[in-house]
Amino acid sequence: MKTESEFFTSWDLNLAAVLVASGIQLDLLEKQSNGKALFYFRRSSELDEVVQAFWAQQMKLNPHSLFTALKFLKNRMYSNY
Asked: What number is the average pLDDT over the span 13-37?
Protein backbone atom coordinates (compact mmCIF):
# COMPACT_ATOMS: atom_id res chain seq x y z
CA MET A 1 0.00 0.00 0.00
CA LYS A 2 1.33 3.42 -0.97
CA THR A 3 1.47 5.94 1.85
CA GLU A 4 2.01 9.66 1.53
CA SER A 5 5.02 9.58 3.85
CA GLU A 6 6.67 6.76 1.91
CA PHE A 7 6.32 8.28 -1.57
CA PHE A 8 6.71 11.67 -3.19
CA THR A 9 4.13 12.19 -5.94
CA SER A 10 3.89 14.77 -8.69
CA TRP A 11 1.74 15.49 -11.72
CA ASP A 12 4.58 17.63 -13.14
CA LEU A 13 6.24 15.87 -16.10
CA ASN A 14 9.21 18.24 -16.10
CA LEU A 15 9.91 17.72 -12.39
CA ALA A 16 9.63 13.96 -12.87
CA ALA A 17 12.12 14.15 -15.75
CA VAL A 18 14.56 16.13 -13.61
CA LEU A 19 14.27 13.54 -10.83
CA VAL A 20 14.90 10.65 -13.24
CA ALA A 21 17.81 12.51 -14.88
CA SER A 22 19.25 13.06 -11.38
CA GLY A 23 19.28 9.33 -10.70
CA ILE A 24 16.08 9.08 -8.66
CA GLN A 25 14.21 5.90 -9.58
CA LEU A 26 10.60 6.14 -10.72
CA ASP A 27 8.63 3.66 -8.59
CA LEU A 28 5.23 3.93 -10.24
CA LEU A 29 3.46 5.82 -12.97
CA GLU A 30 -0.31 5.96 -12.46
CA LYS A 31 -2.11 6.84 -15.71
CA GLN A 32 -5.38 8.75 -15.61
CA SER A 33 -8.18 8.53 -18.17
CA ASN A 34 -7.68 12.23 -19.04
CA GLY A 35 -4.15 11.51 -20.33
CA LYS A 36 -2.32 12.81 -17.25
CA ALA A 37 -0.01 10.70 -15.16
CA LEU A 38 0.87 10.75 -11.48
CA PHE A 39 4.55 9.97 -10.84
CA TYR A 40 5.62 8.16 -7.66
CA PHE A 41 9.14 8.33 -6.23
CA ARG A 42 10.31 6.82 -2.94
CA ARG A 43 11.08 9.58 -0.45
CA SER A 44 14.72 10.23 0.44
CA SER A 45 16.91 13.14 1.45
CA GLU A 46 18.43 13.11 -2.06
CA LEU A 47 14.96 13.45 -3.62
CA ASP A 48 14.11 16.34 -1.28
CA GLU A 49 17.33 18.15 -2.28
CA VAL A 50 16.62 17.74 -6.00
CA VAL A 51 13.02 18.96 -5.60
CA GLN A 52 14.20 22.01 -3.63
CA ALA A 53 16.84 22.80 -6.27
CA PHE A 54 14.27 22.38 -9.06
CA TRP A 55 11.84 24.88 -7.53
CA ALA A 56 14.69 27.28 -6.68
CA GLN A 57 15.84 27.07 -10.33
CA GLN A 58 19.28 25.90 -9.24
CA MET A 59 19.47 22.65 -11.23
CA LYS A 60 22.49 21.91 -13.36
CA LEU A 61 21.87 18.85 -15.53
CA ASN A 62 23.35 17.48 -18.69
CA PRO A 63 20.76 18.35 -21.39
CA HIS A 64 21.12 14.92 -23.00
CA SER A 65 20.30 13.22 -19.67
CA LEU A 66 17.27 15.44 -19.19
CA PHE A 67 15.88 14.83 -22.69
CA THR A 68 16.51 11.08 -22.36
CA ALA A 69 14.59 11.06 -19.07
CA LEU A 70 11.74 13.05 -20.64
CA LYS A 71 11.54 10.59 -23.55
CA PHE A 72 11.58 7.65 -21.12
CA LEU A 73 8.66 9.11 -19.13
CA LYS A 74 6.61 9.95 -22.23
CA ASN A 75 7.14 6.43 -23.55
CA ARG A 76 5.85 5.05 -20.25
CA MET A 77 2.87 7.43 -20.29
CA TYR A 78 1.75 6.62 -23.80
CA SER A 79 2.54 2.91 -23.96
CA ASN A 80 0.14 0.16 -22.97
CA TYR A 81 2.59 -0.96 -20.31
From this structure: 95
